[in-house]
């Protein structure tokens, strides 16, 4: 019984947060491909989960040309993104979901 | 071959062989480590090639993959990748590698090479490649060679030592033969002198001549004693013991009489407590040598006008003199051949060596109690 309650709560929370992610992130970054490319770039530069999440967090909190992983041409054309308006907790949660969905490690077979 | 010569050959041979074998062992160990390091170098080189192959494939996989990434697999080696925090990303190994700080590991007959990777394709900061270690049969090949070398060394060194010792050996033989011949030649004149003195009619002699004759007799007996000792040493216990039941009491009386003349020259008095009919099974000549040496030593080192006490009981014979005595250190060295503590007296320092060898042959225990300037007591227990 306890197990069932725990499972249902977990699923509910995941669904809630996922829908949050869809609202807070995917509404702008509509292209799934972009997310995959970002994750590839972050993985190639920062390697581990901890470092990737920290790097994304630092960038979203304070985006600069030097910390951006976008190619120079893109940056010239679009510039760096605006600072996030999410609070720390929400930002961390969104990064967790992003990593959970797109990390390379779980996709290796 | 003499006992001492055997000992010298043994000592030189052991020293030579030890140093040579040590040298051979060092050479073999050096060769073994050289081969091993060469083997490790070769293993590393192969693993490095595999690492490059893996790196290329990781690069391709990272760039080409989208939703899923197929980890590169190879026929001739296995691999694993770890992130920068040393968490496993993916592995085709059967075992887990925990220590990524070492560059090269050999574990369970497999060798592993750990390399860094940057940029981190698929997040991999460390690549580990594994291959089966090619067995190295250095020792198997070295053992027969080592045995042959050691055998040759032993044979060579034996002949070498013999060759080196030959001149020394020849000299010793020469000296030995000279002593043997001289000793042999001494026998006849000594026997003649002693026999003639005994048969000499002394009734017509004046006191002065009689004294001179006695001195001649004493001196001849001294030479005879030395002769007997030398014969014993020269034959080096090769004389077969003719053991028989001996009446020690009678022999002791006989030997004391023999030494009376010599004792008289120093005005030494014998005080005897000899229990009659004490028997012991031994060779008479050897027992004579044993008793003679103890008594002659007692006479030689005791002071003038003193008493030598001789006590014979069922199982002990004590000879107590009032001589100059010996220190503890001197007592401990007394049985060494040619050890002499007093050069004012004649002799070769072989007396106690003879006493010891005869006593050992018949399981007789020798106890020496001595005090400097008081005297010495030699106790034989059987």
| Regions with little confidence, pLDDT below 50 for 5+ residues of chain B | none
**Beta fraction of chain A:** under 5%
Helix content of chain B: 40-55%
| Shape estimate of chain B | rod-shaped
Task: Tell me briefly what this model is.
The complex is a heterodimer of chains A (109) and B (382). Chain A is mostly helical and 109 residues long.
How is this structure best described in words?
The complex is a heterodimer of chains A (109) and B (382). Chain A has five helices and no strands. In chain A, 69% of the residues lie in helices and 0% in strands. The longest helix of chain A is centred in the N-terminal third of the chain and has 25 residues. By secondary structure, chain A is an all-alpha fold. Chain A has one domain. The model of chain A has no long low-confidence stretch (mean pLDDT 82). With 382 residues, chain B is of the alpha+beta class. Chain B has two domains: 134 residues, no CATH class; 142 residues, Histidine kinase-like ATPase, C-terminal domain (Heat Shock Protein 90), CATH 3.30.565. In chain B, the strands form three sheets. Chain B has a five-stranded antiparallel β-sheet with strand order 2-1-5-4-3, with helices on one face. A five-stranded mixed β-sheet of chain B has the order 7-9-10-12-11, covered by helices on one side. Chain B has a two-stranded antiparallel ribbon with strand order 6-8. In chain B, strand 9 and strand 10 form a beta hairpin. The model of chain B has no long low-confidence stretch (mean pLDDT 85).
Features:
heterodimer; A: 109 residues; 5 helices; 69% helix; 0% strand; B: 382 residues; 5-stranded antiparallel beta sheet; 5-stranded mixed beta sheet; rod-shaped
Secondary structure topology:
The complex is a heterodimer of chains A (109) and B (382).
Chain A: H1 2-26, H2 32-46, H3 49-61, H4 72-78, H5 88-102
Helix pairs in contact in A: 1-5, 2-3, 3-5
Chain B: H1 3-64, E1 78-82, E2 88-91, E3 104-107, E4 110-116, E5 126-132, H2 138-199, H3 207-235, E6 243-247, H4 248-265, E7 269-274, E8 279-283, H5 284-301, E9 307-312, E10 316-320, H6 328-333, H7 351-361, E11 365-371, E12 375-381
Parallel strand pairs in B: 7-9
Antiparallel strand pairs in B: 1-2, 1-5, 3-4, 4-5, 6-8, 9-10, 10-12, 11-12
Helix pairs in contact in B: 1-2, 2-3, 3-4, 4-5, 5-7
């Amino acid at each position: 019984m306890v197990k069932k309650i725990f499972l249902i709560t977990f699923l509910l929370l995941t669904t809630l947060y996922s829908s949050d992610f869809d609202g807070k992130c995917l509404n702008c970054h509509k292209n799934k491909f972009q997310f995959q490319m970002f994750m590839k770039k972050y993985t190639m530069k920062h390697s581990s989960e901890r470092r990737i999440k920290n790097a994304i967090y630092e960038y979203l909190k304070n985006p600069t040309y030097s910390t951006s992983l976008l190619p120079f041409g893109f940056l010239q054309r679009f510039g760096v993104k605006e600072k996030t308006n999410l609070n720390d907790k929400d930002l961390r949660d969104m990064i967790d979901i992003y990593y959970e969905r797109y990390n390379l490690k779980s996709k290796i077979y | 071959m003499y006992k001492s010569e055997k000992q010298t050959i043994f000592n030189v041979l052991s020293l030579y062989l030890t140093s040579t074998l040590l040298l051979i062992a060092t050479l073999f160990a050096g060769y073994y480590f050289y081969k091993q390091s060469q083997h490790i170098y070769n293993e590393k080189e192969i693993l490095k090639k595999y690492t490059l192959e893996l790196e290329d494939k990781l690069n391709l996989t990272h760039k080409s993959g989208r939703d899923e990434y197929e980890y590169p697999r190879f026929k001739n080696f296995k691999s694993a990748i770890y992130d920068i925090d040393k968490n496993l990303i993916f592995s085709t190994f059967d075992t887990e590698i925990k220590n990524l700080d070492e560059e090269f590991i050999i574990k369970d007959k497999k060798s592993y090479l750990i390399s860094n990777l940057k940029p981190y394709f698929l997040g991999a900061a460390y690549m580990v490649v594994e291959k089966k270690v090619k067995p190295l049969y250095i020792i198997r090949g070295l053992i027969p060679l080592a045995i042959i070398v050691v055998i040759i060394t032993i044979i060579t060194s034996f002949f070498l030592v013999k060759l080196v010792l030959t001149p020394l050996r020849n000299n010793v033989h020469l000296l030995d033969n000279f002593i043997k011949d001289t000793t042999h030649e001494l026998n006849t004149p000594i026997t003649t002198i002693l026999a003639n003195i005994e048969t000499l009619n002394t009734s017509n002699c004046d006191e002065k001549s009689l004294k001179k004759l006695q001195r001649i007799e004493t001196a001849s007996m001294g030479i005879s004693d030395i002769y007997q000792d030398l014969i014993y040493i020269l034959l080096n216990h090769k004389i077969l013991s003719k053991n028989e039941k001996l009446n020690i009491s009678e022999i002791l009386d006989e030997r004391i009489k023999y030494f009376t003349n010599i004792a008289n020259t120093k005005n030494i008095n014998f005080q005897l407590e000899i229990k009659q009919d004490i028997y012991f099974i031994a060779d008479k000549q050897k027992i004579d040598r044993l008793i003679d040496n103890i008594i002659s030593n007692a006479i030689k080192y005791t002071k003038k006008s003193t008493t030598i006490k001789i006590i014979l009981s069922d199982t002990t014979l004590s000879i107590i003199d009032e001589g100059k005595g010996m220190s503890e250190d001197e007592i401990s060295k007394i049985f060494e051949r040619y050890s002499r503590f007093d050069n004012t007296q004649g002799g070769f320092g072989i007396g106690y060596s003879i006493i010891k060898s005869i006593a050992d042959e018949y399981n007789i225990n020798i106890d020496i109690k001595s005090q400097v300037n008081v005297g010495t007591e030699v106790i034989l227990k059987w």
